[in-house]
């Protein structure tokens, strides 16, 4: 909501604040002769073209592409070949377990298979082949290897409750932001939308994110019901660590290069949306048609053209009140008109 401020200007002073790139042109003027206008000062803007974006801020954390946790019996550990923080390659040996029993089982299965082949009964041969393959797999599992390239994030010693070691490996070849969207906002979020992400420990890093997954079900979180969404970072940055808190601002709709005015220029009446236009120094009430909106701007689809000068809401109130007799009673909104969604720019 725009905060209204009373502005005092000396006689004859003209203050102009211009921002390039489609931002509002703010002009504060005062009648030189002290008359002709019911207001001592008027805040006006020049109607111009620009973009209108509706955005949705959501909060979550950085997560890896994939994660795998090994759990293994403490009594069988021979060697743990990696340490926390170490980067590993696919198929690299992580842990070597005692495989004595598994090796014995493999030898027995191999002998049984050879005996079956000597007897020549197909069904028995197939049975022994399967037993041999299972025994060989068990022996292979005594050596734990990395299923993908990644980073070792945790190595936990056995506890009295489990008696097992655990080792966690994450794949950081791609990073994502996992966030929760309230169920009321979830219908506006879809795969392919773009977002900007800010990672809390790295406030100067502004990342472009693509929404790649929207959860297929809603889940309860305390008193709220949410849907989980995933945004993919376009490229990895070594300064961005898994687990960092992050905010994503998702663009849920956009209208590009449209005629627009700031929300405070608009007043809602029984006849529709109105603005106060300056025509030859006179204030004229102009009905307009509104298209896309955001928390800051409204698209004007009819009623104004580029270059028109209109009053901001705080300055337009007097003119609208003077026109009340033409329209009958109405209720004008202050700041953001009712019915406009918040967010965006």
- Helix vs. strand class: alpha+beta
Q: How many separate structural domains?
A: 3
**What is the N-to-C succession of helices and strands?**
EEEEEEEHHEEEEEEEEEEEEEHH
> Which runs of at least 5 residues are low in confidence (pLDDT < 50)?
1-38, 314-339
Mean pLDDT: 82
* Helix count from the secondary structure assignment: 4
State the end-to-end CA separation: 13 Å
* CATH architectural grouping of the largest domain: Beta Barrel
- Estimate the helix proportion, in percent: 10-25%
Query: Largest beta sheet: what is the strand line-up?
Result: 4-10-14-12-11-15
CATH class of the largest domain: Mainly Beta
What shape does the CA trace take?
elongated
Stated plainly, the CATH topology of the largest domain is called conserved putative lor/sdh protein from methanococcus maripaludis s2 fold
Q: How many strands?
A: 20
Relative strand content? over 45%
Tell me about the biggest sheet?
Answer: 6 strands, antiparallel, barrel
């Amino acid at each position: 909501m725009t905060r209204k401020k009373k502005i005092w200007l000396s006689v004859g002073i003209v203050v102009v604040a211009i921002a390039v790139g489609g931002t509002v042109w703010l002009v504060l003027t005062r009648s030189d002769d002290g008359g002709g206008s019911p207001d001592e000062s008027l805040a006006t803007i020049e109607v111009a073209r620009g973009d209108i974006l509706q955005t949705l801020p959501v909060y979550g954390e950085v997560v890896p592409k994939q994660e795998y946790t090994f759990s293994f019996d403490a009594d069988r550990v021979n060697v743990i070949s990696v340490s926390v923080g170490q980067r590993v390659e696919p198929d690299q040996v992580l842990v070597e377990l005692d495989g004595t029993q598994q090796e014995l089982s493999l030898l027995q299965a191999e002998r049984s298979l050879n005996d079956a082949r000597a007897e020549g009964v197909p069904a028995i041969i197939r049975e022994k082949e399967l037993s041999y393959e299972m025994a060989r797999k068990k022996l292979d599992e005594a050596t734990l290897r990395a299923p993908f390239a990644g980073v070792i994030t945790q190595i936990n010693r056995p506890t009295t409750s489990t008696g097992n070691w655990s080792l966690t490996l994450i794949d950081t070849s791609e990073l994502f932001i996992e966030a929760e969207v309230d169920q009321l906002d979830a219908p506006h979020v879809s795969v392919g939308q773009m977002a900007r992400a800010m990672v809390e420990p790295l406030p100067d890093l502004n990342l472009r994110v693509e929404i790649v997954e929207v959860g297929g079900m809603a889940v309860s979180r305390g008193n709220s019901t949410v849907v989980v969404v995933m945004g993919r970072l376009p490229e990895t940055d070594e300064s961005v660590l898994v687990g960092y808190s992050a905010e994503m601002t998702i663009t849920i709709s956009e209208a590009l290069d449209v005629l627009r005015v700031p929300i405070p220029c608009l007043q809602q009446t029984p006849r529709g949306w109105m603005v106060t236009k300056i025509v030859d120094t006179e204030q004229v009430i102009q009905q307009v048609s509104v298209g896309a909106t955001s928390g800051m701007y409204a698209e004007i689809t009819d009623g104004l053209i580029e270059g028109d000068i209109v009053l901001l809401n705080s300055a337009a109130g007097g003119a609208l009140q003077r026109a009340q007799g033409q329209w009958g009673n109405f209720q004008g909104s202050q700041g953001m008109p009712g019915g406009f969604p918040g967010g965006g720019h």
